[in-house]
Amino acid sequence: MLALVSPALLVILALIVLPVGWLAWQSIYHDGFTLENYRRVFTEDVYWRSFALTFEISLAVTVIALLLGYPVAYLANSVPKGWSILILSLVVLPFWTSVLVRAYAWLALLQRTGVINQFLRYLDAISEPLALVHNTFGTVVATVHILLPFMVLPLYATMQKIPNDLMQAGASLGASPSLTFMRVFLPLSLPGVLAGCTMVFVLCLGFYITPELLGGGRTVMVSMLVSRNVELYNQFGAASAVAVVLLLSVLAIFFVVSRFISLDRVLGQK
Amino acid sequence: MNMKRNFGLGCALLGAIGLTSAADAAEQITFVSQGGAYQQAQTVAILDPSAKKLGITINQDSIPDAWPAIKTQVGSGKPIWDVVDTPTGNCLRGGEQGLIEKLDFSKIPNGAAMPEAYRSPYSVSYEFYSSVLSYSQKTFPKDAPNSWADFWDVKKFPGRRALRNHPFATLEAALMADGVAPDKLHPLDVDRAFKKLEEIKPHITVWWTSGAQSAQLLNDGEVDMEMAWNGRVSAVAKEGAKVAFTYNQGILQSTSLCILKGAPNLETAVKFLNEAVDPVHQANLPLHIDYGPGNPKAFETNVIKPERAAQLPSEPANAAKQALMSYAWWSSPAGEAAEKRWASFMQK
Predict the structure, then answer these.
(1) Chain A, 11-70: which have a CB under 8 Å from a chain B CB?
(2) pLDDT at residue number A31
């Protein structure tokens, strides 16, 4: 068994463990040991603002993705097989388009001269174009779009495993459909909710292209801070420290989540 | 007789072999620029003619941002590049950090003949571009904004605005908006510049990060006026968009040539450096791309037609309207502090 997985382990070692280790090392070693990079991360308010904004955006994206994704997964779960395949294909379809192209597509939709503003002006619903992009709003919209599949798929996988008999039992005992949903289906789907939310939240923490293109320069998320630090301080240690702090926060989130649910489930396997 | 001739021929052949192998061993350099249409234009205008004239081989490489590579190559002790075309600040900073060779201008007569503002102990100017005030002609068919004071005047010139998300040129523009003359900017009054920027900040729709983004904003009418690089604006105008710009109070910026410390072909590199800023080669560059020659003497060669010259950022009359960016100031501790302060300004 070990022989079978060893190529995979080697790849992980070479491509993940070593570079991340090197990253962490650089953040504390530059002509001798130094905690200067971390002192900066924890004392300068630029970093705090970015971390706070990143968590706020991630939270907003997660909540919106859940509200949009749950009904989709529910529908895909309750319709006949052929329809559910169609629905899931539509969910997965955007995966085949690059993140960059999707960001520009949102720009075409949301900007001042974009489709939405022009349509609203045509209807005389607004007199001045709405500021839909080059701000946090535009960033959140596009990010939700990109991350929605990561919410729908774990939800659907979990819902698939809820035996239909339980709902029928509920109904035969006199519960209304909404009561059965609230008391039986919803609680049983919660592991999927937690799995989807964790995926979306964690992936969102590291978003770069979308806020860079749609944030108008004001929405500075942590990943952008990483790249700016390389430019600003001309040494990778300064950027590594930010990356390490972000990595540790992600690990902390996974640790907390794993107290409630097995990690296999978060990653969608069981 | 016959024998003698053969002997002579043999000698000539031997000599030729000796020459070619010497050329292979020493007479080549690796030149690095930023790729794309820009590097192609240089190849035609400057690199190929220089290689021909000097009888050397120029190997080309390209990288968008040379600075990290300069650091790692020189740091490793065995650099593979010789000459780099990079924003002038990198040459100065590199010189101070021992990453760039100090130039002996007695071996670079073309560089020595350039005005002092166009060279440093480590570099010579190679080409010029400008951060200019550009605007939509649809929004401003006449009475267009013509100075940074106009850009800051949101009552007289209503409209959406964009600036670059970077302190370079932006601080200079803020100071000019506050009434500082273009030739009296340095050393920059950083506090005054940021105070002036706070004033315009609520009216800035987008802080752009890439040249392509600034072009898109102008092209799509997403903003009515912005700071942008002259080449980007003229490219958008060429595509048919109703946009224009003014060189008035533009911030003239440059890339320079410099040589990596311990370059493998130092002597040839110095020879090439001299050739590359030759006024005629330099004059050829703007025939292929919208950038101005780094050597102002190029305008005296008659290679550049007057109507073309009038479009270029470093043409003397245009240059006189602009502020020359001081890379020496930006790579000083005060400049670096201002660069770091930018991040907190943006996130406040």
Answers:
(1) 44-46, 49-50
(2) 80
- Architecture per CATH, domain B28-128+254-324, reads as 3-Layer(aba) Sandwich (3.40)
CB contact under 8 A, A212 and B205: no
Say which amino acid occupies A174. Answer: G
Instruction: Assign B256 to helix, strand or coil.
Output: strand
| Residue A116 sits at the chain B interface (C-beta within 8 Å) | no
Does the global pTM surpass 0.80? yes
CATH architecture group of domain B129-252+328-347: 3-Layer(aba) Sandwich (3.40)
Q: What share of chain B is helix, strand, coil (3-state, %, to 5)?
A: 50, 20, 30
Cα A232 to Cα B339: distance, rounded to the nearest angstrom: 7
- Tens of pLDDT, residue by residue over B50-89, are 999 999 999 999 987 888 889 889 988 999 999 999 999 9
The answer to whether the B28-128+254-324 and B129-252+328-347 domains have the same CATH topology is: yes
Set out the domains of chain A in order of their start, with CATH numbers: 19-266 (1.10.3720.10)
Task: Give the nearest partner residue to B221 out of A113, A230, A232, using CB atoms.
Answer: A113
Which of A44, A56, A234 is best to mutate for the B interface (most B CBs within 10 A)? A234
Q: Where are the domains of chain B?
A: 28-128+254-324, 129-252+328-347
Indicate the residue of A49, A111, A232 with minimum beta-carbon distance to B347: A49
Among candidates A46, A131, A218 on the partner chain, residue whose Cβ is nearest the Cβ of B343: A46
Question: Closest approach of chain A CAs to the CA of B19, in angstroms?
Answer: 43
Query: Angle A83-A140-A121 (CA atoms, 0-180°, nearest 5)?
Result: 90
Q: Where are any strands of DSSP class E within A163-264? A: none
How many CB contacts within 8 angstroms connect chain A with chain B?
46
- Which chain B residue is nearest to residue A221, measuring alpha carbons? B347
Inter-chain CB proximity B206 and A234 less than 8 Å: no
Beta-carbon separation of A217 and B160 below 8 A: no
Q: Which of residues 198-217 of A touch B (CB under 8 A)?
A: 212-213, 216-217
β-strands B83-87, B243-259: how paired?
Answer: antiparallel
Contacts by A43-52, CB closer than 8 A, 24 or more apart: A44/B344, A45/B344, A46/A225, A46/B343, A46/B344, A46/B347, A47/A225, A47/A242, A49/A220, A49/B347, A50/A220, A50/A221, A50/A222, A50/A224, A50/A225, A50/B347, A51/A222, A51/A245, A51/A246, A51/A249
Question: What's the complex ipTM?
Answer: 0.82
Side-chain half-sphere CA neighbours of A256 within 13 A: 8
Reading chain B (348 residues) residue by residue, the pLDDT tens digits are 344 444 444 444 444 444 444 444 558 999 999 888 889 999 999 999 999 999 999 999 998 788 888 988 998 899 999 999 999 999 999 999 999 999 999 999 999 999 988 999 999 999 999 999 999 999 999 999 999 999 999 999 999 999 999 999 999 999 999 999 999 999 999 999 999 999 999 999 999 988 888 999 999 999 999 999 999 899 899 989 999 999 999 999 999 999 999 999 999 999 999 999 999 999 999 999 899 999 999 999 999 999 999 999 999 999 999 999 999 999 899 998 999 899 889 987
B346/chain A closest Cα distance in angstroms: 6
